Amino acid sequence: MAHHAEAHADASHGEHTHHGNYWRIWAILCVLLVISVAGPFFGHPIVTLITAFGIACVKAYMVAKNFMHITVAPRYVAYLIGTCLIFMMLFFAGAGPDVMELEGTNWEKPSWKYANAHAHEGHAAEHGAAAHH
Amino acid sequence: MRPIATTRSTAGMPTGRLAVWWLIASEIVIFGGLLASYIMFRLSHESFSVQAANTNTWIGAFNTLVLLTSSLAAVLGHKAADEGDGPRAARQLYLTAFGGLVFAGIKFGIEWPHEIHEGFTISSGTFWSFYYTAAGIHAAHVIAGVIIMLIIAPRAAKNLDLHRVELIGVYWHFVDLVWIFLFPLLYIAK
Questions:
Q1: Contact (CB<8Å) B163/A23
Q2: Which of B26, B161, B180 sits opposite A59 (nearest CB)?
Q3: What is the total count of domains within chain A?
Q4: Residue B99 sits in a domain of what CATH number?
Q5: Are the beta carbons of A11 and B44 separated by less than 8 Å?
């Protein structure tokens, strides 16, 4: 009896979450997973980009909204999470130019140039072999 | 005597839930920095796509399905806890933990041994350094989640501390969410 009273206190503190149809959400997430796996089979980079990362964003939103109930939490939680995401983007914007370029004013990355040249050669050899067949 | 995390809500929500959101915010910075670094390298160095071609998409997809399903169990446990049904909430937590164990078992028992056997170790190149670091940190979070669930579930089964079912659930969904982005980055974009 005491356990039940405590359970009720636990369950009823704070606001109650509205529970939707979680099985339906799970089924949609599974369908999206299948689409993201199937995307590369079309052999088009843009399609792969959309099916992989576009769908990843949709899946992430669905999990955050329906499973984590972020929209029910106080507004400042979304601001908190958003601030951290902005910091991530700031990091990308700040470090990206140095990381993503192979050379700049008075500097270069010879090892990366070498690795990329080899990657190109590998691609060319694969395409050549495919054309030959 | 009840802990402060269950009784105090000066921030508009119970303190325990606030703590979990803070934890998630700090985790976003950790995983976000790692993923942002990976994307920088991936976009600018074509050799990454050559190395990424060696990861097994089917294993990654199956593990994604496992985590999505375990997230479903976690949120069903939260629902049961909200309804005051501790034993059902505990069963859902055990199911979630089982999903985590399957995920870790596949990763450490099948996937990584195969890749290491093929000669792809953490020092095989920048891609593999990212691969093992990102997937390893994520797997550590999965294992931590499983341990916490196995601690919480027996008490939940006795209808004690049911609020913790929701808290570990929110954490688990975040772990799932991180994998949702790791999967296309490491397994699909080849």
A1: no
A2: B180
A3: 2
A4: 1.20.120.80
A5: no
**Closest CA of chain A from B179, distance in Å:** 10
Is residue B6 in some structural domain? no
Closest partner residue to A92 among B36, B72, B160, by Cβ? B36
Q: Is residue A90 part of a domain?
A: no
**Cα torsion for B151, B152, B155, B156, to the nearest 10°?**
-150
Q: Per-residue pLDDT tens for B132-184?
A: 999 999 999 999 999 999 999 999 999 999 999 999 999 999 999 999 999 99
Contact (CB<8Å) A116/B6:
no
Residue B129: domain span: 12-188
Q: Does the beta-carbon distance from B163 to A11 stay under 8 Å?
A: yes
Confidence of residue A123 (pLDDT cuts 50, 70, 90): low
Is residue B134 situated within a structural domain? yes
Read off the pLDDT of residues B30-84 as tens digits, 9 standing for 90 and up: 999 999 999 988 888 777 878 888 999 999 999 999 999 999 999 999 999 999 9
Measured between CB atoms, which of A48, A60, A74 is closest to B180? Answer: A60
Show the beta-strand stretches assigned E in B44-188: none
Longest dimension (CA), chain B: 60
The SS3 call for residue A104 is strand
Instruction: Mark yes or no for CB contact B41/A59 under 8 Å.
Output: no
Q: How many domains does chain B have?
A: 1
> From the candidates A10, A16, A44, which should be mutated to test the interface with B, based on the most B CB atoms within 10 A?
A10
In order, the DSSP letters of B14-68 are -HHHHHHHHHHHHHHHHHHHHHHHHHHHHHH-THHHHHHTTS-HHHHHHHHHHHH
For chains A and B, count residue pairs whose Cβ atoms are closer than 8 Å. 178
